[in-house]
């Protein structure tokens, strides 16, 4: 019995160690549905939400691209020293899609995600965390 327990613990430790070294970053895929119309149709406010989320998360913005669609909609892309952040809106469907990838640490993405949850309160928010 003791031998089985030792074998089990060894296997678990090997798997835990392997998991930690297999990924180089974390990718947050965030879906926001039923977003507030006031925010969705206000590109300036949406850009501020994203700028604030990234500032609070402590990432370094290298470059930022903004494209406003006509009659409405927004695409934002931030090149980060840590990797990237992108946002796409579909105001007519009340949807926002966000990707946030960091090759440095999970905490930066989590801080940014917490800010986004507060900014989009009242919306349906789903997040997938992928270790890549």
How would you describe this structure to a colleague?
The protein has a single domain, classed as S-adenosylmethionine decarboxylase, CATH 3.60.90.10. The protein has helices at residues 2-22, 37-40, 43-57, 106-119; strands spanning 26-33, 61-68, 74-80, 83-90, 95-102, 124-131. Helix content is 41%, strand content 36%. It has 132 residues and is an alpha+beta fold.
Topology:
Elements: H1 2-22, E1 26-33, H2 37-40, H3 43-57, E2 61-68, E3 74-80, E4 83-90, E5 95-102, H4 106-119, E6 124-131
Antiparallel strand pairs: 1-5, 1-6, 2-3, 3-4, 4-5
Helix pairs in contact: 3-4
Write out key terms for the chains shown.
36% strand; alpha+beta; 132 residues; six-stranded antiparallel β-sheet; 6 strands
Residue ranges: pLDDT <50 for 5 or more in a row?
none
Q: Can you count the beta strands?
A: 6
C-alpha end-to-end distance: 37 Å
Spatial strand sequence of the major β-sheet: 2-3-4-5-1-6
Give the integer mean of the pLDDT values. Answer: 90
Principal-axis shape equals elongated
Question: What Rg is obtained from the alpha carbons, in whole angstroms?
Answer: 19 Å
CATH superfamily: S-adenosylmethionine decarboxylase
